[in-house]
Design goal:
Elements lengths: L6 E6 L8 H10 L3 E6 L9 H8 L17 H8 L2 E7 L1 H9 L5 H8 L4 E5 L3 H5 L1 H12 L3 E2 L3 E4 L5 E5 L3 H10 L1
Parallel strand pairs: 1-2, 1-3, 3-4, 4-5
Antiparallel strand pairs: 6-7
Helix pairs in contact: 1-2, 1-8, 3-5, 4-7
């Protein structure tokens, strides 16, 4: 599938792999997409709002109750705007929130308002990824139509090696182009 002209939300949760997200934004822009970024508060500990805003050419949505600009419930207007949503990295926490229907931040409220294709790229320690509760939450999300982009096997931020690395940005874009 050609991604040119597609509108994508990139949802970023608070894991170390968020440092890859500026490149993910660049890859989608390079493929001809329009990009809006929604980040959790913790995601912005690993990458900056200014970097994401500059690369996406759009304001980064990260506060449900942020400064008032135009009238618009942003989690609804973002959901209406986009053709698909990619959550990368997706921590065990955000996967659990999504699976449980918890909407307590900009990313989770947008996810619950989103009725188009959602793709999730998990990123976490290999033991966390293999945990039965995380696997259950992923299966539950798959049952409602979410597509997972498998994490890679390799060196993890904690110093171990295993399955849990967020897939590389260019591979995420290639996956979406094929899907």
């Amino acid at each position: 599938m050609d991604l040119k002209g597609k509108k994508v939300i990139i949802g970023i949760s608070g894991g170390i792999a968020a440092y890859k997200c500026p490149e993910l934004v660049r890859q989608f822009i390079g493929a001809g997409c329009e990009v809006k970024v929604i980040a959790t508060k913790n995601a912005l500990q690993f990458t900056t709002e200014w970097t994401l805003m500059t690369l996406s050419r759009n304001k980064v949505y990260h506060q449900v109750f942020g400064p008032v600009g135009e009238w618009s419930p942003e989690h609804i207007s973002h959901a209406d705007w986009a053709d698909f949503m990619v959550v990368a990295p997706a921590t065990a926490n955000v996967i659990g929130k999504f699976a449980s229907g918890i909407a307590d931040d900009a990313l989770s409220t947008t996810f619950l308002a989103f009725d188009k294709p959602v793709f999730i790229a998990p990123a976490m320690n290999d033991k966390m990824y293999a945990h039965p509760i995380v696997q259950r939450n992923m299966k539950l999300l798959e049952e409602v139509g979410v597509t997972f982009i498998e994490p890679a096997y390799g060196e993890l931020a904690c110093g171990t090696t295993g399955k849990g690395r967020m897939e590389e940005p260019e591979n995420i874009v290639a996956f979406l182009a094929k899907h």
